[in-house]
Amino acid sequence: MNDDTLDKKKIGQRIRAARERRHWTREKLAEKMEMSVNTMAEIELGRNGTRLENFVRLCRLLEVNADYILFGDAGPAVQRVTDLLRDRDEETVRVVEQTVEALLRALDAQRPEK
Fold first, then answer.
1. How many whole angstroms separate alpha carbon 18 and alpha carbon 100?
2. What's the pLDDT band for 114 if we cut at 50, 70, 90?
3. What is the pLDDT of residues 73-100, one digit of tens each?
4. Contact, 13 vs 20, CB < 8 A?
5. In the predicted model, is pLDDT for residue 2 greater than 50?
6. How far is it, in rounded angstroms, from Cα 35 to Cα 53?
7. Cα–chain-centroid distance for residue 97?
């Protein structure tokens, strides 16, 4: 599989894992998504995809990053930072981004060269 191909089976597994972390049944998620349980099962099993609008809604309901669902776990630290910034205004996010960049430059400057 090349980098441009999405793996529907893995996407479905990540959706299911996110649903289970919320302690929701497939039926509950299907109800919240206003779709049939069978359709939700087809998505979780990787047999079917869904429209972009439904995908966005699904990510919001499950409170997960779309990148995680599509491409996999970027790591728990990245998810924690994403969670911290989720409901912040653009200015706050910009300040945090600049602060992190400055901090990383300072840390890189302290490291001995290899």
1. 28
2. low
3. 767 777 788 888 888 999 999 999 999 9
4. no
5. no
6. 13
7. 19
User: Model's pTM, two decimal places?
Assistant: 0.65
What angle, 0 to 180 degrees and rounded to 10, lies between the N-to-C axes of helices 8-21 and 26-33?
A: 100
The Cα–Cα gap between 114 and 111 comes to 9
Distance CA 72, CA 78 (A): 12
d(CA 10, CA 68): 11
In the chain, the amino acid numbered 52 is L
Instruction: Write down the residue that tokens 């439904």 correspond to.
Output: 54
User: Which residues 6+ apart lie within 8 Å of 101 measured at CB?
Assistant: none
Query: Distance between alpha carbon 104 and the CA centroid of its chain, in Å?
Result: 24
